[in-house]
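User: I'm putting together a small comparison set for a docking exercise, and I want a reference complex before I start. The sequence is below, and the ligand is manganese (II) ion. Could you produce the 3D structure with the ligand included, as structure tokens?
Assistant: Of course. I'll restate your input first, then give the structure tokens for the complex.
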Amino acid sequence: LTMRHRMRVALERNEFRAYFQPQLDLASNRIVGTEALARWVPEDGPPVGPGEFIPIAEEYGLIDAICLRILEDACRWTQRWNALGLGPISVAVNISGRQFHDPERLIGTVDHALNTLGLEPAALELELTESTAMNDPENASTVIRMFHERGVGCCIDDFGTGYSSLSVLKRFALTKLKVDRSFVCDVTTDANDAAICGAIIAMGRALNLKVCAEGVETEDQLAFLRAQACDQVQGFLIARALPPDDLEALLRQGV
Ligand code: G
Ligand code: G
Ligand code: MN
Ligand code: NA
């Protein structure tokens, strides 16, 4: 079978699912959000990560269908957790470069998911990478405004790895910056990375944006981020991306 055919069959079988990586709020020490991360979960094998299938899905024109599935999963589960009183909890969904370049379609998809699944728009965030946003700032501004008008949040993902003009950044109706894990990795050993991390957190505060640090793996990194008054952390120290039932179990523990 060709890969394209296998992916079509997998879509029909609902083998593309969202896993959820928790985001810990440092002021309250509670899980206040998750990032939905795509997985291909075949009936008879281990889950496959997005690095392996997203590029192929883009090439074969299947990315919209897969991302719609992830968005639906994200909205459905998050709506459930909030309805069960396990929240308030939000969910962040990644937007691919290709989706970003067709804003009408993207907004249609988001509206459809929100309308049919009953999630509060404020509980949804969309993640655009810094390079996607900055390669086409006009389009980014339009897309982000469309989300903003609906009350949907917008994060810049992998912040610090691209080339951001601060004047452009300021014009975007953003809600959050996500510090790329390459800076978080060495905050306790590399003075430059510590300075960059601290500067991004301070800038977020100045622009009235939440800041979430990604890739937090150690207690020392967490202590540094607390000292800098970073808002949220995400990383293996808290948990990996988990299947929805496991994330729900974590929420029930009242973390
Ligand atoms: O989960 P992980 O470990 O392997 O994710 C790898 C990359 O895939 C991340 O950069 C993430 O942004 C991207 N990714 C994960 N899920 C999705 C998705 O649903 N849509 C898109 N476009 N990218 C995703
Ligand atoms: O969208 P983004 O590129 O930010 O996706 C997050 C990616 O980072 C996923 O591939 C996820 O599995 C990975 N990740 C999440 N937490 C950690 C961590 O603590 N350490 C490392 N090395 N990778 C992580
Ligand atoms: Mn992301
Ligand atoms: Na990221």
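The pocket of guanosine-5'-monophosphate (ligand 1) is lined by residues 37-38, 49-51, 54, 67, 70, 94, 96, 241 (CB under 6 Å). The beta strands are 16-25, 30-40, 90-94, 124-129, 153-159, 176-179, 210-213, 232-233.
User: Thanks, that's exactly what I needed.
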